[in-house]
């Protein structure tokens, strides 16, 4: 499960299925969020977590990061702790992002 404040990247590498006829069925499973660990994705997905990753390929491969897609031969990603700051309207109560951890960095109100 995704935890946005654990300091780790969730990385999913996707291989093209042998038959493109599988794609509509696979997309249904993916859109439900049931692809990680699903038997139909067993040979198609590699799921890892870490603080950084470098992905290299001989031919340009599609890289999709938050909806932006482009073809690259090398991509690198890393975690930058506390790199994003939020402005919270006055009167909004801060809460923890992680369901299963104590609030380490609560949002401070102005």
Observed structural traits:
single chain, 110 residues, mainly beta, two-stranded antiparallel sheet, two-stranded antiparallel ribbon, 1 helix
In short:
With 110 residues, the chain is mostly beta strands. It contains one helix and four strands.
**Bulk shape:** globular
Read across the widest sheet, the strand sequence of neighbours is 1-2
Q: How many distinct helices?
A: 1
Report how far apart the termini are.
32 Å
Task: Give an overview in words.
- Helix content is 8%, strand content 34%.
- The chain is mainly β and 110 residues long.
- It has one helix at 23-31; strands at 9-14, 45-50, 52-65, 68-78.
- It is built from one helix and four strands, in the order E-H-E-E-E.
- A two-stranded antiparallel sheet has the order 1-2.
What's the arrangement of secondary structure elements?
Elements: E1 9-14, H1 23-31, E2 45-50, E3 52-65, E4 68-78
Antiparallel strand pairs: 1-2, 3-4
């Amino acid at each position: 499960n995704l935890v946005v404040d654990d300091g780790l990247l969730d990385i999913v590498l996707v291989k093209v299925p042998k038959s493109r006829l599988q794609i509509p069925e696979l997309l249904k499973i993916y859109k439900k969020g049931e692809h990680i660990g699903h038997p139909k994705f067993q040979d198609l997905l590699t799921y890892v977590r870490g603080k950084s990753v470098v992905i290299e390929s001989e031919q340009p491969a599609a890289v999709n990061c938050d909806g932006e897609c482009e073809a690259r031969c090398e991509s690198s990603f890393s975690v930058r702790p506390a790199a994003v700051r939020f402005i919270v309207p006055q009167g909004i109560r801060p809460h923890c992002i992680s369901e299963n951890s104590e609030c380490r960095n609560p949002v401070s109100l102005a």
